Amino acid sequence: MLPRTLRCLTLLGFLFFCDGSMAANSKQFVAHDFSFTSIEGDPLSLSSFSGKAVLIVNTASQCGFTKQYADLQELWSRYRTKGFVVLGVPSNDFGGQEPGNEQSIRDFCEITFDVDFPMTSKARVKGPNAHAFYKWAEDSMGFTAKPRWNFHKYLILPNGKLADWFSSATNPVSGRVVKAVEAALPSDL
Fold first, then answer.
1. How far apart are CA 101 and CA 107, in angstroms?
2. Using CA atoms, how far apart are residues 68 and 75, in angstroms rounded to an integer?
3. For 93, which DSSP code?
């Protein structure tokens, strides 16, 4: 008969492996494993950005941070030829500040801010119905890294791994974001 301590450890190990955590962690996901729908309604796999640094931003048209669209466009224009993508993810999760449909969102962004970086269709970014990418990002970077408001930013490395996150209040052209983007750019472009 096994000593009591060893029996307890064996039982705990058995419970750990049987509770699904082993299955959930058996594959190490990267951002490239997730897909959205483009704002035009087409499939948009993040694997299409493989080899590029990507800044994923949940956006809203009626937010106090909406002026960041101009700065996101500036960042995209500055680094797009160097292997960088800004991806806007419209969401109505915070304050109901993105009530429109995809066409009205696209029109607003193009007319008001001359946005031409890629955008997705509206998506949930928080809660139990959040898009799988956002659930993964929170699981990967921890509770403090989850979106708390519109214009939360995740920086993805060319290999699909999460590099960093930036709060809504962090301007996209701030020194902190620009430095992180420059460090994440692929070296072969």
1. 10
2. 10
3. T
User: For residue 55, what is the domain's CATH number?
Assistant: 3.40.30.10
Q: Check if the beta carbon of residue 127 is closer than 8 Å to that of residue 116.
A: no
Catalytic hit among 8, 18, 63, 109? 63
18 is catalytic: no
Pick the closest to residue 56 from 179, 160, 142 (CA basis).
160
What is the residue-level pLDDT of the chain in tens, covering all 189 positions? Answer: 445 444 444 433 433 333 333 334 435 899 999 999 999 999 999 999 999 999 999 999 999 999 999 999 999 999 999 999 999 999 999 999 999 999 999 999 999 999 999 999 999 999 999 999 999 999 999 999 999 999 999 999 999 999 999 999 999 999 999 999 999 999 876
Strand order in the sheet with 153-156: 84-90, 53-59, 153-156, 162-166
The tally of domains found in the chain comes to 1
The reply to whether 9 falls in a domain is no
This prediction's pTM: 0.85
